[in-house]
Amino acid sequence: MAEYGSSNLITTKKERRKPPLVVFGIAFGEVSYLDYEPNSKLKVPQADLLVFFRQMSVMLKSGVPLSQALELLAENMTNKEFGSNIFDVSKRLGSGEELSTSLNNYPRIFSPIMIGLIEAGEAGGILSEVLERLASLIEAQSKIKGQITGALIYPIAILVLAVTISLALLIFIVPTFDDMFKSMGAELPALTSFMLILSRLVTSLGFLIIAPLASFICFYLFKTSYSTKSGRLFFDKLILKLPLFGDLILKSELASMSDTLSTLINSGISIVEAIERCINSSNNEVIRTALRRSISLVTQGQELSTSLETSKVIPRLLVSMIKIGEETGALSFMLENLANFYKREVEEAVTVLTKAMEPAVIFVVAAIVGTIVISLYLPMFSLINEMG
C-alpha cells in the first residue's frame, strides 16, 4: 500500500489560503491548485504528463514518500487544474487506494497503458523505474507525432495559401477582365473562357449558398462514418495507401506499437494484456484490427510472430525480428530495437519528404496562379497579333 503524508497539514494549508479575487470569471492574484475542484473530464497535454512522470520517478528514487511526492508536484505544477487532480490522487492514497486505482479515476489523462504499467510497477516494487519508462515512452511518441505534424504543416499551409490566392483572383480580378473582354467583342481562347465561367460560378449567389452547405454535409458524413468501426477501417486503409504519407504514417504506428509492447513486456505484463493495451493506444484502425486478430490467436497458444504473419499491413521484417526475439528469449529487447529502427525510418522519411515537398508544392502553387494570370492575358496577346 502506498504511504501517505499528513492530511492535517493539507487541510491547514487549504484553510489558511486566501482565495483569489474573481471578476467576470477572471481570477486576479495568485491562483493555486487548491482553487480548483478535481475534474475527471480534464485533458492534459503530453508535455505535462512527461514532466509529471519524470519528476515522480526522480523523487521516488530520491526516497521521497509517494504521497509527499504527489503533493509537491500538485503544488508546483504550472497547470493548476492538473495539480488539483493530482492533489485528489494524494488524498485517495490516504484512504488506502493504490496509485494505479487512484489514477484510474481520470481516464482522459491516464491511458490504459499508463495504468497497466503502474500496476505492474506496484506489483513488482519497481514503480520509479516504470515511471521513467513511461516518461521515455511519451517522449518518443510525442517526437514522432511532432515530426509527422511538421512534415504535413508546410505543404498544407502552402496549398491553403494557393487556394486563397486563386479565389481572390477569381472573385476580385477576373470579373474586371470579364467586363473588358465583353466590350472588346473578341473571340476568347478556351482557357480564358473557362476561367471566366469559373469566376462567374464562384461569385454567384448559388455557389455562396451551396458551397458551405455541401462542405458541412461532407464533413458531417465523414465524421459520422469515421465514428463507426467499419468506416474508420475504410478511411484508415485509404490513409495508409496515400503516396509518401501512407508509408510514413505506417512506420510511425509500427514504431509506437513496438515501443509500447517492449515497455509493457519489460515491466512484467503478459503478452495478451500488452497487446490489449497496445490496441487502445493505436490511432489507426487497420493496426488495431491486426492486433485484435493477433490476440485471439495468441490466446489459442500461438506465438506473437505467428499471429501477425496473416496480417497484410504488418511488414515481414517486423514479424521475422519478433520471431527471433521469441526464439532467443529476448522479445522485449528485440521490440525495443524494432522501435528504434522505425523511429530512424520516420526521421529519414520526414527529411526526404520535406525536401521533396517544398519544390513540388511551390511548383503547384505557381502553376495554379500562373494559369489564371496567363488565361487573362491570352486575349490581349491575340489582339496585339491581329493589330500587328
Q: Describe it for me?
A:
- This protein is an all-alpha fold.
- It has two domains: 104 residues, Receptor-associated Protein, CATH 1.20.81.30; 253 residues, Type II secretion system (T2SS), domain F (Receptor-associated Protein).
- Strands 1-2 form a two-stranded antiparallel sheet.
- Strand 1 and strand 2 form a beta hairpin.
- Helix 8 crosses helix 16, helix 12 packs antiparallel against helix 13 and helix 15 runs antiparallel to helix 16.
- The termini are far apart.
- The N terminus is likely disordered.
Which helices and strands occur, and which strands form pairs?
Blueprint: H1 7-16, E1 21-23, E2 26-28, H2 46-61, H3 66-76, H4 80-94, H5 99-103, H6 112-124, H7 127-184, H8 190-202, H9 205-226, H10 229-240, H11 245-266, H12 271-281, H13 285-299, H14 304-309, H15 316-328, H16 331-387
Order of helix and strand elements from N to C terminus: HEEHHHHHHHHHHHHHHH
> Which stretches of 5+ consecutive residues score pLDDT under 50?
1-12, 21-29
CATH C-level label of the largest domain: Mainly Alpha
Total number of strands? 2
Mean pLDDT: 86
Question: What's the total helix number?
Answer: 16
Class from helix and strand fractions? mainly alpha
- Rg from alpha-carbon coordinates: 29 Å
Helix content: over 70%
CA distance, first residue to last residue: 96 Å
Order of strands, widest sheet:
1-2
CATH topology of the largest domain: Receptor-associated Protein
